[in-house]
Amino acid sequence: MNKIERKEKFITISKNQEIELHLFDKENKNIIYSLEKNSKLIVYQYGFDINNNIEIQLNGENSEVEYHYSLIGHQNTQYNILVLHNANNTKSNIYNHGLNVLNNKMDFNIVGKVPKKSKNCICNQENQIINLKNGNSTILPNLLIDQYEVVSNHSAYIGKFKDDILFYLMSRGISKKRGYELLIKSFLINNSNKQEDLINLEKEISKI
Amino acid sequence: MLELKNIYVKVKDTDKEIIKNLSLKIGKGEVHAIMGPNGTGKSTLSKTLMGYYKYELTKGDILFNGKSIKNLEVDERAKCGIFLAMQDPTVINGVTNSEFLKTAKRELTNEPLDYFDFIKSIEKSLDSLNFDYSMIHRHVNKNFSGGEKKKNEILQIQILKPKFIILDEIDSGLDVDSLKIVCKNISSYLKENKDTSILIITHYPRILEYIKPDYVHIMNNGKIEKTGDITLALETEKSGYNSINKMNGKEKNE
Ligand SMILES: Nc1ncnc2c1ncn2[C@@H]1O[C@H](COP(=O)(O)OP(=O)(O)OP(=O)(O)O)[C@@H](O)[C@H]1O
Ligand SMILES: [Mg+2]
Fold first, then answer.
1. Which of A32, A38, A131, B148 could form an S-S bond across to A135 if both were Cys, CB 3.0 to 4.6 Å?
2. pLDDT value at position A148?
């Protein structure tokens, strides 16, 4: 990966701290988060036509991350996220949603790593890419787990919005266009409850 | 209100014909019930009325208030006032019930939403359905129990106010108390909206004891085989569909 052209960012979440971030990104970025003991990080990150490298180091015991990442791509895009469970009782839940708008490539590389020394970890990932047209999307979910006691779930879906869902919406009087808007919005908002996220996102969606 | 004229329906891009020469007329304010064995085409019929993309009307016509709707899009049919409470309501991940209902209401009325009214009517419905208020913030049908899904369809009826309602096995998966609640809600909707017609698809006459049908139809092999009143439903429950066939055809020999 060509790291030179990207902005680098290091963020440390100190002991016992809880942080929630809402990020809107229009330029390529590498972010490394380091979590200390008993800390918690919640991130809602929205990317637009960019490439991102994210690394999350769960370095302290009982540290926990919840990462919601949404990407809209009108060009080739790539997203890599690495979650390192470097301590006992660490927990990660990551939700990666991509909307591949045109006929480009969108690649997700999702890695969760639990080495032998880390006990009682929870490592979950949910990955989805929706192709609005005939984009070429891939998801590589990777769980590198050296531990028996890990709780781990992962799912990956690449495809279109399901016709039956659209039928259900339309059967309640919602037009196809509004139906798509509703589905795109809820897919990309990725469970954020923040009004500002929604407003910013709606601006971008209206350009699709 | 609704008239099906000799319709034939097949699964799109296949030769599988499910509905064969079915005709049915449902007047304003009437309650009709359809019973029939599994796999006979009841859900296919209901989804065809709504314009489901997998089915193709190959012959015949569907008239709603005198106008053909067979070429209308699904949402346009809903805007005519048709509502299908589905046998297996679809899960919509990420979209909350409240957002879904707001969007549908706006689209149906084609005007901005009166939030105060909207919230009031939601509260009223949730109460009368004995539904927890949190249901409104959950994703549509996601992780809902079977009964909750059915109640959620009724909630939509109360908010969206359709004129022609199809209930496809609304009674399946409901416990005795929930069935009572659901039926009570439908009955009072009919009382408040006297012009509304209903088509109830069911396997059990029980629901028909709460919502009295004007006509009961037996559907078999893709068409209406017999029409009667509530006694036909009770007879069928007692002796099954085969005996209905016999009564139809071979009565005299027995
Ligand atoms: N999309 C489809 N593709 C292929 N076959 C289908 C399709 N939809 C329905 N069928 C078939 O058509 C027949 C009628 O199905 P339908 O769901 O309408 O039955 P039903 O009368 O509602 O039955 P039940 O009482 O079990 O709900 C069945 O044999 C079913 O397998
Ligand atoms: Mg059925």
1. A131
2. 80
